[in-house]
Specification:
The chain is of the alpha/beta class. The protein is 25% helix and 38% strand. It contains 3 helices and 8 strands; from the N terminus they run E-H-E-E-E-H-E-H-E-E-E. Strands 1-4-3-2 form a 4-stranded mixed sheet, covered by helices on one side. It has a 4-stranded mixed sheet with strand order 5-8-7-6, with helices on one face. Strand 7 and strand 8 (129-134) form a beta hairpin.
């Protein structure tokens, strides 16, 4: 079996703010942008890695969700506890400096973790946790 990660999904609360963060701050390329019935899906990914993408989607879009479930998702997103992704870089300090200079919310400065990685963390405009690990 030969599996790869093709797409992952993260919710957004503002297509424009998410696009600015993932494209302009992180440097991802925009691969697709779809609007449907007032909702917006944006597919982004790292330059030079066409097989790996993040789809930024409207939260709670599943028609099978109840109003209570939609409220729970909105509350979890507001707290920043709904979704996350781990990214990796060869230059953690440079990446941290670039993100810190933007309007990204710093959650954790570069830190040597007890479990063997050095990483930092930010929140994107929707509150998703973006953890960035240093490649070794």
């Amino acid at each position: 079996m030969n599996l790869t990660i093709h797409q992952t999904f993260l919710p957004h609360t503002s297509p424009d703010a998410s696009l600015a963060f993932y494209r302009d701050t992180l440097g991802f390329e925009v691969r697709d942008s779809v609007e449907y019935r007032g909702m917006h899906w944006i597919t982004v990914g790292p330059v030079g890695q066409p097989g790996t993408s993040i789809v930024l989607h409207p939260p709670a879009m599943d028609p099978g969700l109840t109003d209570a479930e939609r409220r729970t998702i909105a509350e979890m997103m507001a707290k920043g506890s709904y979704a996350s992704i781990n990214l990796a870089t060869d230059d953690l300090d440079g990446t941290f400096d670039r993100l810190q200079a933007s309007d990204a919310e710093v959650v954790q400065e570069p830190t040597e973790q007890a479990y063997g990685v050095r990483d930092c963390a930010f929140r994107d405009p929707a509150g998703n946790l973006i953890r960035i690990q240093e490649r070794r």
